[in-house]
Write a structure and sequence with these properties.
The complex is a heterodimer. Chain A is of the alpha/beta class. Chain A has helices at about 45-55, 95-105, 110-120, 135-150, 165-180, 195-200, and strands at about 5-15, 20-30, 35-40, 60-65, 70, 80-85, 155-160, 185-190, 205-210, 210-215. Chain A folds into two domains: about 1-80 and about 155-160 and about 185-220, P-loop containing nucleotide triphosphate hydrolases (Rossmann fold), CATH 3.40.50.300; about 80-150.
Chain lengths: ~220, ~270
């Protein structure tokens, strides 16, 4: 892998909050067209790392470059990113489509057809008139995934995306992710499920106490 | 592009807050309607129209010269705090649940906070205009008098206490302006507070800050500007003028907003 191939680079990234080191000397060089799995116990720093990669927390040391932009210097946020970190606060009184449209309106890069397509891709019906409050946990998770991919981002970051999904949902999700990988997206996924991560990922990073303690290719 | 993005964020904030809080807003307006009805029934025999109801319902406890004179201005406290609760409820929920998804789309912390500042101003104005409309409609219907001019009650109970005479319409406008300005300033303090500390602590902090105004004469307290009895029209001695109230509230709102704007740009979103 040459420097030119690298889409996301974290260079000696550390983050300290209230004298506690939550990210410790993280180094990553990630490419498009690959799926990267992150595994670790609760509190190991996976979500914090994802937040740092999204520009939501600012690193105390080190730099993060995504798509040629150094976060905190040339831009506050990655140029093209879709994330699922915890449930988005969708409106209970809106349908799934209307909730996504409300978010999509903010940057205006996709039309209604693409919103409908994203909803279909996660196994939901874009014409479903049920309000979000009537959705099951699995449907809510699917809609969360749909909002992460709908704007066709180059970088996709998913934290525990299969939580609450049934077995059919997990299979559909795996297929969707492999399709996105084929579309040359750079995909980061955190999960407790070793089998699922091993199946999907090209490379696995093991995290502990805010540090990458091991990584291996599959 | 930036202006357009702020407008979209602001439109989304309005739509989201109305949809998410509609039942809470209906509860607020229902409480105001009940209070208006009760006050109207009480004052009907004194020859009051809706102006008297506005005064009776929204007045504060005035300046305290002896501790034994102190009375809690229940309606002033209740209406003001309930509005602040609804404003704070949206601000915190949105910060907690949606900020990540909005920031990554609008791609600017500054724009996100700026839209919230605009939302605070517009939402407070809209809420208080509806509250005043509810009071006017309920009281006028109960009393059977839709005029907003002078009435025997206004002359005997309100104008007789005034050090500076103003018309009933000016009187209502001053009360409305006071409540809106105070609520905007306190809401902006809420927005600043929840960047650092828990929403519950922030809310109680703001309540205490407001509550102090019921004891104190200090014109630098933000909530004192919604207290009509502490305005110069009723108490020329203390010289709390409408001009000062407007200027002070506007300056304070901008100062708090600027601080919020600056700190939010460097704030980690955990």
């Amino acid at each position: 892998m040459t420097e030119h191939d690298v889409y996301l680079k974290a260079d000696h990234v550390s983050k300290e909050i209230k004298n506690e080191l939550i990210l410790d000397d993280i180094n990553l060089s990630l490419q498009k067209g690959f799926i990267y799995g992150f595994r670790g116990k609760n509190g190991s720093g996976k979500t914090m790392l994802f937040r740092a990669l999204c520009g939501l927390i600012l690193s105390t040391k080190g730099t993060i470059s995504i798509g040629g932009i150094t976060l905190g210097k040339e831009g506050s946020f990655p140029p093209s990113v879709g994330v699922l970190i915890e449930y988005p606060g969708f409106l209970n009184g809106y349908t799934g489509f209307k909730n996504l449209k409300m978010l999509a309106n903010l940057n205006d890069v996709i039309d209604d057809n693409r919103i409908s397509e994203s909803i279909r891709l996660v196994g939901l019906d874009p014409n479903d008139k049920r309000k979000y409050r009537k959705y099951s946990l699995g449907m809510k998770q699917r809609l969360g995934i749909a909002q992460a991919i709908m704007e066709k981002p180059e970088l996709i970051i998913l934290d525990e995306p299969t939580n609450a999904l049934d077995s059919d949902g997990v299979e559909e999700f795996k297929k969707l992710l492999l399709d996105l990988k084929a579309q040359n997206k750079c995909i980061l996924i955190a999960s407790h499920d070793k089998e699922e991560l091993d199946y999907l990922s090209d490379e696995i990073f093991m995290m502990e106490n805010g540090k990458i303690v091991d990584h291996y290719n599959l | 592009m930036m202006k357009y993005s702020i407008y979209k964020l602001f439109s989304r904030d309005m739509a989201y807050s109305i949809s998410n809080g509609k039942y809470k807003y209906v509860f607020l307006f229902s409480i105001v309607a009940i209070l208006s009805l009760m006050t109207s029934i009480q004052l009907d025999s004194y020859g009051s129209n809706s102006v008297g109801i506005f005064y009776s319902l929204l007045k504060d406890n005035g300046y305290i010269y002896q501790l034994s004179d102190y009375q809690v201005p229940f309606n002033w406290v209740f209406i003001q705090f309930l509005v602040l609760f609804l404003i704070g409820d949206f601000l915190f929920q949105d910060l907690d649940n949606n900020r990540t998804y909005l920031l990554l789309r609008c791609r600017s912390r500054g724009r996100y906070i700026f839209s919230k500042m605009c939302w605070i101003v517009v939402q407070n104005i809209v809420l208080y205009i509806v509250i005043f409309a509810v009071i006017y409609i309920v009281s006028s219907m109960t009393i059977g008098d839709f005029s907003v001019g002078s009435s025997p009650y206004f002359e005997n109970a309100i104008a007789s206490q005034m050090d500076i005479q103003i018309t009933p319409v000016q009187f209502i406008a001053r009360i409305l302006l006071g409540y809106i300005m105070t609520s905007i300033v306190l809401s902006s303090i809420l927005l600043l507070g929840i960047q650092f500390i828990s929403p519950v602590i922030t809310y109680f902090g703001v309540i205490i800050l407001s509550g102090v105004s019921t004891f104190s004469d200090l014109k630098w307290l933000p909530a004192i500007h919604s207290m009509i009895l502490k305005q110069a029209i009723f108490d020329y001695e203390h010289y709390l003028t409408l001009r000062f109230s407007i200027m002070y509230s506007v300056v304070l709102y901008f100062l708090v907003s600027i601080v919020t704007f600056i700190v939010s740009r460097k704030k980690d979103i955990l």
